[in-house]
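Request: Show me your protein:
***
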Amino acid sequence: LNYFQKILLKSAPIMSAVYTLFLSISILSYLGFHLDKKMNTFPIIFLLGLISGLFLGFYQLIKLTNSQKK
């Protein structure tokens, strides 16, 4: 393997965790936004989805980084 491929192999788990963080925030915020529009309660469910996505994404990121330290 060349140098670039070795770097990609080492960074793949972190890239996966970052994608999980981004997708969990995006999907839960999107669902919250649409539920708020449907129920006419705009910021409440959107904010709950956003906060849930942040917690879920950062939990996955911390879990992955802690497993790599061992």
Observations:
- DSSP finds two helices and no strands in the chain.
- The chain has a mean pLDDT of 90.
- Helices lie at 3-39, 42-69.
- Residues 60 and 66 are 10 Å apart (CA to CA).
